[in-house]
Specification:
Helices cover about 55% and strands about 10% of the residues. By secondary structure, it is mainly alpha-helical. A hairpin with an 8-residue loop joins strand 1 (about 75) and strand 2 (about 85-90).
């Protein structure tokens, strides 16, 4: 937003055409020098995969062991990316996250995958296992699975 006389606006617009916001050329050059070519990018991504795969496997192993076949939750099996999405019974995600927090495990807020963080069914939990160690991810997910079970039992009992 700018307020000025017509003559000043014409002068400023003439100069601004050369000052457009655009890509950061220095960072682009740094990337080109670091990766060199597509093979460099692919090799680097394989290093990322080697770090992340055991963490994602830990999440999925716990979910499969503790919750598979129970019908109280379902989850995604991503082929890439940084998140696993868990769906609980409707109305349970916030309670699961709060219960996990009370026990010492901090999760991404319920509904984080929805616009403005508002899950209309309050059932989605996004798991981001990229930062902690695989052992910590496994322990945390064991607790999350217990919390999903406890909150689901409370939900079922309240509807009975």
């Amino acid at each position: 937003m700018m307020a000025a006389s017509r003559k000043n606006i014409e002068f400023i617009l003439d100069k601004m055409q050369f000052q457009t916001i655009g890509p950061n050329k220095l960072n682009q050059l740094r990337h080109v020098l670091f990766f060199e070519d597509i093979a460099g990018i692919e090799a680097h991504m394989k290093k990322h995969a080697a770090i992340l795969k055991p963490k994602f496997d830990a999440v999925l192993d716990v979910l499969d062991t503790e919750l598979a076949g129970s019908s109280i939750a379902s989850w995604s099996r991503p082929k890439g990316g940084y998140f696993i999405s868990i769906d609980t019974f409707p109305g349970c995600a916030r309670n699961v996250i709060n219960k996990a927090a009370e026990a010492g495990v901090k999760l991404t807020p319920a509904g984080a995958t929805f616009p403005y963080g508002k899950d209309p069914q309050d059932r989605n939990i996004r798991i981001a296992p990229s930062f902690p160690s695989a052992a910590d991810v496994k322990s945390a997910m064991e607790l999350v699975a217990i919390c999903i079970g406890l909150v689901s039992i409370d939900k079922l009992l309240s509807e009975a």
